[in-house]
Amino acid sequence: MAAKAFVLIETVVGRNKDVVATLRQLEGVKSVDTVTGPYDIIAIIEGETLNDIGDLVTGKIHPTVGISRTVTCLAIQAT
Predict the structure, then answer these.
(1) Domain residue spans in the chain?
(2) Which of 8, 11, 12, 77 is 20 to 30 A from 32 in CA distance terms?
(3) Prediction pTM value
């Protein structure tokens, strides 16, 4: 089963649209939505393993220009 996570993202003022456009181009990013509240964007990401999720967040999402902070919430499937 694939690993899934919700990434809560705060952006730098004025960079929201640029960040959304960049994230939508990344492999493993399944959806990107602009939201209201303490975060500016919520992205749903998937990978084959938890390591794939970690690599995507640290290697591709964190370096995105315009992102000031992220919180990653791993989805846990109850059995």
Answers:
(1) 3-74
(2) 77
(3) 0.92
